[in-house]
Design brief:
15 strands; single chain; signal; cell membrane; oxidoreductase; transmembrane helix; alpha+beta; lipoprotein; Immunoglobulin-like; 353 residues; five-stranded mixed beta sheet
Length: 353
């Protein structure tokens, strides 16, 4: 009997030993949004365990009680229904599903990444007049570009924010879909080319935290990591000054060189950044002479204001010629020659294909 117990203990200890080196960073949040997400995960898991644990326990109890060697167990081969048992079996999961659905629905709306945060911590609402820190994020192959429009500089693979100040991320991608994720700060959010996504969060404790890509995006995916620093106001001001004291300038020409695929890129700092660069990346018009997607869509909608800014386009939209000169519902012309044709063909001189 001692050997089976020893094997059982070993089987129980082995998974714990393998997990000893793991950092349960999701369960150790440093920001209020991540904290609420962790609490939601714990609550949902505990709620589901109210069913899972009793079911697993009853399986073992029934297997032991009604084993073949137990001659004292009640044997009732004609039993097929119990109203009380059916009520317990169906009502308990139903109540749990209703509770879980209500909590999940509420949490999903309160923690919507596009929704500005209303508090920096529990019982600590965002003070009126506080301006969120805006960070423009571009997922490149295979590195992260962070632009701080409020301060006019940019960094690669290094991100920082002051403690207890709301952060507003605007995110996009240069080529393929990616996922921005700082587990201690907030849940991950996807970045997509030609689109802008948003994420609102706050960091509540100073520290050095890991950030990475959570969506496979090619050969350099495993090295697409960055550091996120939570700082006090003075430390963040010093960090801003250190970046602005650099020599590099992030303009469109520099960006076109930066977006070329590269792996395991060290931290880079740009003392200045083109204020319109992020919008140009979103609209796929960083290269000179390229038509921006938002201008193209406005042109397709017939907006004259968009056409003035597009090279080679007339200031006013050209009217579309109708298929015929008549309107729907009018009587047909007496002579087919009176019909305005789009092509050079005429009824008397048809064009053969």
């Amino acid at each position: 009997m001692a050997r089976p117990l020893t094997l059982l203990r070993s089987a129980a200890v082995l998974p714990l030993a393998l997990l000893a080196g793991c950092d349960m960073v999701v369960m150790n949040p440093m920001g209020d949004v991540a904290l609420q997400q962790r609490n939601l995960v714990i609550f949902a898991t505990a709620l589901m365990l109210l069913i899972v644990i009793p079911v697993i326990a009853l399986v073992g109890i029934f297997a032991w009680k009604y084993r073949a060697s137990n001659q004292d167990a009640a044997y009732d081969p004609d039993w097929d229904h119990s109203t009380a048992l059916e009520l317990v079996i169906w009502s308990a999961p139903l109540l749990i599903v209703i509770c879980l659905g209500a909590v999940t629905w509420t949490g999903t709306h309160l923690l919507d990444p596009y929704r500005p945060i209303e508090r920096i911590a529990k019982h600590r609402p965002v003070a009126s007049g506080v301006k969120p820190l805006e960070v423009q994020v571009v997922a490149l192959d295979w590195k992260w570009l962070f632009i701080y429009p409020e301060y006019g500089f940019a960094t690669v693979n290094e991100l920082a924010a002051p403690v207890d100040r709301p952060i507003r991320f605007r995110l996009t991608s240069s080529s393929v879909m990616n996922a921005f994720y700082v587990p201690t700060l907030a849940g991950m959010i996807y970045t997509m080319p030609s689109m802008e996504t948003k994420l609102h969060a706050v960091i509540n404790k100073q520290g050095d935290y890991a950030g990475f890509s959570a969506n496979y995006s090619g050969a350099g995916f495993s090295g697409m990591r960055f550091r996120f620093y939570g700082m006090d106001d003075r430390g963040f001001a010093d960090w801003v000054a250190r970046n602005k004291a650099g020599q590099g300038a992030l303009n469109r020409a520099t960006y076109l060189q930066l977006e070329k695929p590269s792996e395991k890129v060290p931290v880079m700092r740009f003392a200045s950044a083109d204020p319109g660069l992020f919008d140009a990346v979103v609209n796929q018009c960083v290269r000179p002479g390229t038509t921006c997607m938002n201008q193209m869509m406005r042109r397709d909608a017939g907006d004259p204001a968009a056409m003035k800014t597009m090279p080679g386009m007339a200031a006013k939209p050209q009217p579309h010629s109708p298929l015929t000169g008549g309107d729907a519902g009018e009587a047909p012309p007496k002579n087919p020659r009176d019909i305005q044709q789009r092509s050079n063909a005429s009824p008397s001189n048809p064009t053969t294909m």
